[in-house]
Amino acid sequence: MKVFYIGAVVATLTKSALAFTVSPDGIKKAGAGVSIKLPGDLSVYDPNEMGLLQGTNNLLDRITSGPAFTIAPPQIIVDSPPAGAEIKEAQHFLEHLDANGELPLNFAKPKAPATATVLGRARLISDDAPGDIEHVIMKLPDGFHYVEGQSLSVIPPGIDAKNGREHKPRLYSIASTRYGDLLDGNTVSLCVRRAEYYDPVTGVIDPEKKGVCSDFLCNVNPGDVVNVAGPVGKTMLLPKDPTKDVIMIATGTGIAPFRGFMHRLFMENTLARHTFGGSAWLVLGVPTTGGLLYKEEFDCMMRNASPGQLKIDYAISREMTNSIDGGKLYVQNVIAQNGKELFDRLDSGAHVYFCGLKGMMPNILESLEGVAQSQGVVWSEKLAALKKNNQWHVEVY
To answer: Which neighbouring-strand residues pair with 117?
Structure first.
């Protein structure tokens, strides 16, 4: 038998009746009106979430340990590094942008764009390579920040002759890190292919069908003003876990976000570079050697990377042949030729990224399905698992 008090009322109950009466529903039905919280269930106050004392996140341990609590050696906060520690300087003034799970988004919107100023433009491919691809660097207004893998919109000047309205914004993947090519945190770089239409009969470019925005960007000069909006994008972000491998598959200007990734991981003097414990693998598809984008930079990254930490495969379709059927070498062939390695990396938690023309994906998916079948894996189930684990990232246009 148990005795308990509710206000001035004294009741004597059996154990089963007591269990019902002191439950939240029982108390409410009894007219007390206030439900109880079991001690220690952390439903009112979670010490580890709301009591981050001295940055150690161990208030719960302090409470449960009482006077016997001591800070574990790895958590000791010191004013100077211990003897023998290797000290590396790191640029860090923009590391807060995504440090707490938040992202810089929509500093400016297309209907109220911000103004960027062109600092420079350079052709990226040789004269004998098809088309025209330009690298454009712009100074952004104060407060306009982004992180690797995001995009911004460019609103070309002028009026659309078809409807008499301002041109619609065009989205471009950002080709630089958050610090920009000048490392001052105030610039952004774009990799832009001039959209051109060739008449199938004459083989001559039809200027009436040129890409409005790409043509504008490929002709800008230092000092020109460009209306921009953004940044946007949550899909093409580097893994939060720096020990995970990063696999990047691109065609043409789809290299843009991966240039930002690789500068962050292998070039810039940042905490991200110092703590990256995984490996990176880039597969880039272009038609000719003269069309290889940023090759000099990637060569430098290969020298900077630790042995085995960076792998780069080029698929130069008009100059290389694949080992499967002897035909032209495309990115999907590189995937097929290295299928086991790719799947082994994915099984170990690697993140895979795809960027380029949307026409690249059907052949890539077909190739991946073939690899899966050769390993006795159901591709649809494998793909679903990758998406669920946030290991699958696609940005095509």
So the answer is: 139, 225
Q: What is the DSSP letter of 166?
A: B
Predicted confidence pLDDT, tens digits, the chain (397 residues): 444 444 434 444 444 444 445 566 665 666 555 555 555 555 555 555 555 444 455 566 666 677 776 655 554 556 677 777 777 677 789 999 998 889 999 999 999 999 999 999 999 999 999 999 999 999 999 999 999 999 999 999 999 888 899 999 999 999 999 999 999 999 999 999 998 877 777 777 777 778 899 999 999 999 999 999 999 999 999 999 999 999 999 999 999 999 999 999 999 999 899 899 999 999 999 999 999 999 999 999 999 999 999 999 999 999 999 999 999 999 999 999 999 999 999 999 999 999 999 999 999 999 999 999 999 999 999 999 999 999 999 999 9
217 closest CA partner among 225, 209, 207:
225
Secondary structure string (H, E, C) spanning 268-310 = CCEHHHHHCCCCEEEEEEECCHHHCCCHHHHHHHHHHCCCCCE
| Nearest alpha carbon to residue 172 among 196, 143, 193, 186 | 193
Residue 61 neighbours by CB distance under 10 Å: 16
User: 33 is written with which tokens?
Assistant: 């009106």
Buried b (16+ CB within 10 A) or exposed e, 358-387: eebeeebeebbbbbbeeeeeebeebeeebe
**DSSP characters over 340-381:** HHHHHHHHTT-EEEEEE-TTHHHHHHHHHHHHHHHTT--HHH
Q: How many CB atoms lie within 10 A of CB 237?
A: 19
Which pairing describes strands 151-155 and 225-232: parallel, antiparallel, or unpaired?
antiparallel
- Residues designated as active site: 172-173, 355, 395, 397
Report long-range pairs for 360-364 (Cβ below 8 Å, ≥24 apart): 360/251, 360/254, 360/285, 360/331, 360/332, 360/396, 361/394, 361/396, 363/330, 363/332, 364/249, 364/331, 364/332, 364/335
Q: Is the dihedral of CA 362, 345, 238, 93 positive or negative?
A: negative
Residue 244: beta bridge partners?
none
Of 32, 43, 25, residue with least CA distance to 4: 32
Nearest to 172 by CA among 190, 187, 193, 196: 190
